[in-house]
Amino acid sequence: MNTRFILIETSHAGNVGAAARAMKVMGFDDLVLVNPRWDDVLTRQEAVDRASGATDVLAKARAVATLDEALENVTHLCATVMTARDFGPPTRTPREHLAALPAAGGCVGFLFGSERYGMRNEDVYRCHAALRIPVAPDYGSLNLGAAIQVIAYEWRMALGGFSGAAPSPSSTEPADAQAVTGMLQHWEQALIEVGFLDPAAPKKLMPRLNQLFNRAQPTPEEIHILRGVAKAMADAARKAKL
């Protein structure tokens, strides 16, 4: 099962190196940075020093401009949060949630927010689950490298450690997060066309639909059908207005 660690708007180069080290000791090497503070963050001396030998992970890592680019081929996306979000995905401990994932196949993505402001609600809404690491109630502040290490360890254990057999991929893998996002944008426009969604007062309709489809885990073929439905809805609404 493929695994990707995604860091959004990282502001400290040292944390990128710490992330690479935390990933490598657990056998992972797919690191993507979304709009990091430094264009050259992957080669900055602080990042290289904190990587402590995991420079191969830094060399393979890439920086992209948007979260959509980072989510290519990701079929199950987990946010990391300190507090649950209203209308967001279910909030679980890493051990509780990850234990059931290895049989699902596809690519799992772990999403980490900025050191300065954490995860934005709109990014959390895109996820299938929100992972909250159990910490002391009077001091819950984990630095980014430590949080990545905990998640990487729990995921490695869920996969069977380093001696466990690799899980067999699912014959009907779910569509990736990009496909789901594109379908939801198509549906949003169609719902506006038929008068079901008021763009001036959308409330929480789209985040709720996002969670509905995340729970359903539609396949690429099903995404194609849903986009066909959205197109038919919009076409019918336009004809009715003529």
From TrEMBL:
Which reaction is the catalytic activity of this chain? uridine(32) in tRNA + S-adenosyl-L-methionine = 2'-O-methyluridine(32) in tRNA + S-adenosyl-L-homocysteine + H(+); cytidine(32) in tRNA + S-adenosyl-L-methionine = 2'-O-methylcytidine(32) in tRNA + S-adenosyl-L-homocysteine + H(+)
- Select a single GO molecular function from the record's annotations and give it: RNA binding
Give the location in the cell.
Cytoplasm
Tell me the keywords, alphabetical order: Cytoplasm, Methyltransferase, S-adenosyl-L-methionine, Transferase, tRNA processing
Where in this chain does the record put each tRNA/rRNA methyltransferase SpoU type domain? 4-153
- Tell me if Ubl conjugation is a UniProt keyword of this record: no
Q: What is its EC number?
A: 2.1.1.200
Q: GO cellular-component terms in the record?
A: cytosol
Give the matching InterPro entries: Alpha/beta_knot_MTases, RNA_MeTrfase_TrmJ/LasT, SpoU_MeTrfase, tRNA_m1G_MTases_N
What domain of life does the UniProt record list for this protein's source? Bacteria
* Gene Ontology BP term (one): tRNA nucleoside ribose methylation
Top-level class of the enzyme under EC nomenclature: transferase
**Chief location of this protein within or outside the cell:** cytoplasm
| Assembly | Homodimer.
The similarity annotation says: Belongs to the class IV-like SAM-binding methyltransferase superfamily. RNA methyltransferase TrmH family.
Q: What does this protein do?
A: Catalyzes the formation of 2'O-methylated cytidine (Cm32) or 2'O-methylated uridine (Um32) at position 32 in tRNA.
Q: What is the name attached to this protein's record?
A: tRNA (cytidine/uridine-2'-O-)-methyltransferase TrmJ
Q: Which gene encodes it?
A: trmJ
